[in-house]
Amino acid sequence: METKYIATRDGYGDEILILGRENKNIYVVDCDIGKSCKTVPFSKELPNQHVNVGIAEQNACGVAAGLATTGKIPFVTSYAVFGSMRMSEQIRQEVCYPNLNVKIACSHGGFTPANDGASHQGIEDMGILRTIPNMTVCMPADYNATRKLVRAAAEYYGPVYLRFTRDPIPVIYDENATFELGKANKLMSGTDITIIGNGDVLNLAYTAAKQLEQEGISVALYDMHTIKPLDVDVVKEAIETTGKIITVEDHNILNGLGSAVCEIVAEAGKGIVKRIGIQDQFGESAPYESLLQKNGITVENIISESKKLLN
Amino acid sequence: MANKELVAKLKKQAQTVRLTLLDMIYKAQSGHPGGSLSATEFMTALYFNELNIDPKNPKWEDRDRFVLSKGHVCPVLYTCLALRGYFDTEILGTLRKEGSILQGHPDMKRCPGIDISTGSLGQGISVAVGMAIAGKRDAKDYRVFTLVGDGETNEGQVWEAAQTASKYQLDNLVVIVDNNNLQNDDTCDVVMPTLDLAKKFEAFGFETFAIDGHDMEAVVDALANAKTKNGKPKCIVGKTVKGKGVSFMENVVMWHGMAPNDEQYTQAIKDVKEGLL
Question: Where are the beta strands (DSSP E) in chain B?
């Protein structure tokens, strides 16, 4: 069957509209980028549940907090760069500290706004928000996962950061796949090496894992869509079964998925991790694949690093 | 016009508020007396007259909301809440102590009657806007009041919030500016001139009221009048004196965030008691 490609921001736009129809307390707070964040259908059909504060992210976060105090479930909608950094302290003070039911839903995660250049490529966002108490941090790996995890975030009480792609990525999950915030999805079972990926580059890990299997290497593959709370049981199991872990993410290798996994492995005192991700450097306007390649986020490199760990 | 009896009662109440907040800051040996004293008339008029609230039911969904955007002057807010019966006045002695519901800046999770945690300047007004939008959308009659410092208006977010209030025609929102012309480092004129705040808010689409923020009658009237359903958010700019009522604190920058020693405390109490006799 031919692989379908859909941007996960479309998954957000589709699911938030359905959620809004079901529950009048679901709100979208836009910052003048509703068109590219796919919230226009929501704003047109449900204007009473929509607020557009203009290009004013800090205020958007505060307004959402105010709405949340009255029982609304606002989704502040922006790009990863602005939704994590421009409003970072507002998220800390007015959302996480009072533990209000505000969701931050951001498109343009990682290198996915490739030709926009470094200013629009949010590569630090998940790491920054991971350090704030009460925050949940999640990046779905495809359109179907996005639909399910946006719904899961709406049903969960508390702050959640959701990160989507601007550009189309392969659909790897079936429509009936199930997802739970904080619980990794197991895609392959294996005993030689464990690969833990998430977001738009999970599909690269998947391709690499399947090729390794063909070469007779037994691979366990997980989608760690939620990096906080991390599914610690999965990491502990990996330490015990394979003891060798590769992490794959479209995020700075500092403080993202790889770092979160390393924290568990270091405290366990055994096991080894190789982090594949953005090498603590800014991107540029370039094809998405080229940006990934410059940082070693490729099928070939995942295979090569896996073999190095096995030897 | 507010009736004379009410104004006299509130003036007396304001004196009690001042004495109580000075006592709590003195006991804690930490806190912000200057801005608490400049906001005392506003806070007294709100909590002992204007706000439609129920101390026995702090989360009552139809209540008026209050957001202390200038969160550091929480001693005056805690005092009003305690005197209104949200919690025992004895708790006021625990200000800034470990485990206290009275944190150095307001914490809605710990302290009953706090509608939102604040402390980082410029943010509370946005939260108040969100509450007011919800009130409009839900067709509720509650009003939302927020107290903002003049120094606080240095923060760009204040104006982001103001334009949003105007866009959504939040005539259920009242922004009160405590215009004492002092901020942390120096006077507003030296640190960052505020220019004419009433004109600025007017330019942002607000219906504005420029008053003497220590004239209780004017404060009561402005709060009562700031409710016309004309689609315009309201802004009351109250000209105030930082440290009002305490001779050695008035207009002295240092008293922004400092507690009085024994001698100063005695003098402060004497000043407040004499000031209104």
Answer: 65-68, 144-149, 173-179, 207-212, 234-239
Distance CA A90, CA B105 (A): 15
Please answer whether residues A225 and A201 qualify as being in contact, where contact means their C-beta atoms are separated by less than 8 angstroms.
Answer: no
Confidence band, pLDDT 50/70/90 cuts, at residue B277? very low
How far away is chain A from the Cα of B222, in angstroms, using its nearest Cα?
A: 24
Q: Cα dihedral angle (A33, A39, A45, A50), rounded to 10 degrees?
A: -60
Question: What pTM was estimated for this model as a whole?
Answer: 0.97
User: Active site includes A57?
Assistant: yes
% of chain B beyond a pLDDT of 70: 99
Tens of pLDDT, residue by residue over A101-123, are 999 999 999 999 999 999 999 99
Q: What is the DSSP letter of A33?
A: -
Tell whether A67 lies on the interface with B, counting CB pairs under 8 A: yes
Q: CB B126 to CB A98 under 8 A?
A: no
Q: What are phi and psi of A195, to 5 degrees?
A: -110, 125
Q: Beta strands A219-223 and A185-188: pairing type?
A: antiparallel
Closest chain B residue to A94 measured between Cα atoms? B117
Among A49, A58, A66, select the one facing B130 at the smallest CB separation.
Answer: A66
The string of pLDDT tens digits covering residues A268-280 is 999 999 999 999 9
Question: Which SS3 state, helix, strand or coil, does residue A252 take?
Answer: strand
Alpha-helix runs per DSSP H in B174-259 = 188-191, 197-203, 216-225
Inter-chain touch A62–B119, beta carbons under 8 Å = no
CB atoms closer than 10 angstroms to residue B213: 27
d(CA B31, CA B103): 10
The answer to whether residue B36 scores a pLDDT higher than 60 is yes
Pairing, β A226-228 against β A136-138: antiparallel
Confirm or reject contact between A61 and chain B (CB < 8 A): yes
**What pLDDT does residue B2 have?**
79
Which residue of chain B comes nearest to A48, CA vs CA? B137
Query: Within 10 Å of residue A241's Cβ, how many Cβ atoms?
Result: 16
Which DSSP symbol is given to B88? -
Residue of A15, A22, A45, A57 marked catalytic: A57
Pairwise CA distance, residues A30 & A112, whole Å: 20
Instruction: Please report the pLDDT score of residue A41 as a whole number.
Output: 98
Mean pLDDT throughout A141-166?
98
The share of chain A scoring above pLDDT 90, in percent, equals 99
Q: How many CB atoms lie within 10 A of CB A237?
A: 16
